[in-house]
Amino acid sequence: MNLPPTVTPRAFERLSEIGASEQGKALRVAVEGGGCSGFQYDIRLDDPATDDLVIADGPEKVVVDPVSLPFLAGATIDFADELIGARFTIENPNATSSCGCGTSFSI
């Protein structure tokens, strides 16, 4: 069985800072076809669905749909606040290559 993705404390802290759970939302991390490398990440605040994998820390939640889950097996979801901007990031061991912006990858 594949390992589920993990979420760093920093990512959960950011969800708390933006009040995600207070809005009844979770951070959805999904994989879609497209982007310059074949697949791209869709990261957004969304309502959890009944078939989602839910990763929680207190009231804060990250959800992954069943179709995206194999693509994110063993991945680490983090939050980076850098000079180029602040964003949620994904370190994905399944990606064989990725684009420069980090939102598109291939397997």
TrEMBL record:
Q: Where is the signal peptide?
A: none
Any single biological process term in GO? iron-sulfur cluster assembly
UniProt cross-references to PROSITE patterns, sorted A to Z: HESB
Per the record, the domain of life is: Bacteria
Task: List each copy of the Core domain by range.
Answer: 6-102
Pfam families with a match to the protein in the record: Fe-S_biosyn
- InterPro entries, per the entry: ATAP, ATAP_core_dom, FeS_cluster_insertion_CS, HesB-like_dom_sf
**Which Gene Ontology MF annotations are present?**
2 iron, 2 sulfur cluster binding; 4 iron, 4 sulfur cluster binding; iron ion binding
Q: What NCBIfam families does the database record attribute to this sequence?
A: iron-sulfur cluster assembly accessory protein
**UniProt name for this protein:** Iron-sulfur cluster assembly accessory protein
Provide the species name. Sagittula salina
